[in-house]
Specification:
- By secondary structure, the chain is mainly β.
- It folds into three domains: about 220 residues, no CATH class; about 90 residues, Carboxypeptidase-like, regulatory domain (Immunoglobulin-like), CATH 2.60.40; about 100 residues, Immunoglobulin-like.
- It contains one helix and 35 strands.
- The strands form eight sheets. It has a five-stranded antiparallel sheet with strand order 1-13-12-15-16. Strands 2, 5, 6, 9 and 10 form a five-stranded mixed sheet that branches.
Length: about 425
């Protein structure tokens, strides 16, 4: 059975959504192709309001027990292939096929998600399965993805209103809409018979980074647990990655650069600068650094492809000298320190400096830190420290005072040129990466 919806999305809503996508600063990275050996994922929903709990079997093995109305199971990960799915009253035996609610085989393709809905009503004598194909791609930052599904067996085809505006028309039983990408927030949802006014309203809150299905279920004439309702399920949830840029190319100190991510300019900044973090969906991004006002396609000083994982923080450092430029990606751990402490790491991005040892208050604390490397994090009491930088095995040739405040996470960046002067001179610049709010 096809899962494409005949429901039509109102053109005003489509235009709004298109504008939101176009204005997104950092669009989602392209979804990776599905490998032929990738597993499929299958979940089940009990949407028969006048039927008791059920057991669900897959290829003769019990996969879910005592599933009650309206229950949405977790996804089960299975190898792609053909599966027999059988649903029977809870506690009954497969040896009695007359009791089967569902007894069907389905071909599940690799890398795809599916929802099997037990739907209909006993009173009507029409209980059966509908297999939906789910699209659980990550939404853009700050947005959620949402579809509506009509599985109320005694409700007519409906129109759906969002914040008083008709958004979806003529959604009939057993059908689902396509996915809408909407800003996170709370929406007033109204359900109306097609062409009429809402006869049911509810408030629906959606959070950024999540994919939802809003299930119209239950009976218009039902009461209690069987009553008509709109029940949202969270089908997938994603935590964004955060990336920032660091300009550590001393040759162009005083000459700002533009940073492009996936061909969109996100910041213009100068040496030595560290931008704020920007939230992005996990994925692969093309990063270009060009002289301010330059063309990223023809004038890129640095071009790199960066892979980031949701829930993690990254620093992308433009570094080098003498035309030998490149990008280094550091994974940042912005776990906050214990009360009264700071967390601190050192990063070596002075392109003409050798590997170094770092002294703290006269004691050698870090040894043999090479260009393009960062240390792990140290947790130390807040205060003021004297920091010395020495060639590995030698004595400090550069010293500075570094004050760090409780509740903050820092990176101490060694940058500039040993042989430089003015803004290009070697120094240690701290950045505050996170803090207690």
């Amino acid at each position: 059975m096809s899962t494409r919806s005949p429901g039509r999305v109102h053109p005003i809503i489509l235009a709004l959504l298109a504008a939101l996508v176009a204005l997104s600063l950092l669009p989602s990275a392209a979804q990776a192709g599905r490998a032929s050996d990738a597993p499929a994922r299958l979940r089940a929903i009990h949407a028969v309001p006048d039927f008791g709990a059920v057991d669900i079997y897959v290829n003769g093995n019990k996969a879910l027990s005592d599933v009650t109305f309206f229950t949405v199971s977790p996804y089960l990960e299975v190898p792609a292939g053909r599966y027999k799915v059988q649903v029977i009253p809870a506690g009954e035996s497969l040896s009695n096929p007359s009791l089967f609610v569902i007894n069907r085989s389905y071909n599940l393709k690799p890398g795809r998600d599916y929802t099997l809905v037990a739907r209909g009503s006993v009173a009507s004598g029409r209980v059966g399965p509908t297999l939906l194909r789910d699209d659980n791609r990550e939404p853009a930052v700050g947005s959620a993805r949402l579809r509506a599904a009509h599985f109320s067996p005694d409700a007519p085809a409906v129109d759906i209103f969002i914040n008083g505006e008709k958004a979806i028309e003529h959604l009939s039983f057993r059908r689902v809409t396509g996915y809408l990408e909407v800003p996170a927030g709370t929406y007033e949802v109204g359900i109306a018979p097609t062409g009429g006014d809402p006869i049911f309203t509810t408030s629906l809150t959606v959070e950024a980074g999540k994919v939802y299905t809003a299930w119209a279920s239950g009976l218009l004439g039902g009461a209690g647990a069987q009553a008509f309702d709109v029940r949202p399920s969270i089908d997938a949830e994603f935590e964004p990655a955060r990336i920032r840029a660091v300009h550590a190319v001393p040759d162009i100190a005083g000459s700002p650069v533009d940073v492009y991510v996936n061909d969109v300019k996100v910041v213009t900044f100068d040496f030595f600068s560290v931008t704020d973090y920007i939230a992005v969906p996990g994925g692969t991004y093309k990063i270009c650094v060009v002289p301010a006002g330059g063309d990223p396609k023809t004038q890129a000083v640095i071009a790199a492809t960066v892979r980031v994982t949701g829930g993690k923080d990254y620093s992308v450092i433009a570094r080098g000298t003498g035309g030998d430029f490149g990008a280094t990606v550091l994974e940042d751990d912005n776990t906050l320190p214990a009360s009264g402490n700071v967390r601190l790491r050192a990063a070596h991005f002075s392109p003409d400096a050798p590997a170094v040892d770092i002294f703290v208050n006269g004691a050698r604390a870090i040894t043999n830190l090479s260009f393009k490397q960062a240390t792990g994090y140290l947790e130390v009491p807040a205060g003021t420290y004297t920091v010395g930088i020495a060639p590995t095995g030698g004595s400090p040739i550069f010293t500075t005072s570094l004050s760090v405040e409780a509740g903050k996470v820092y990176t101490a960046w060694a940058n500039g040129l040993l042989g430089g002067a003015g803004s290009q001179a070697f120094t240690v610049t701290p950045s505050v990466d996170a803090m207690v709010e």
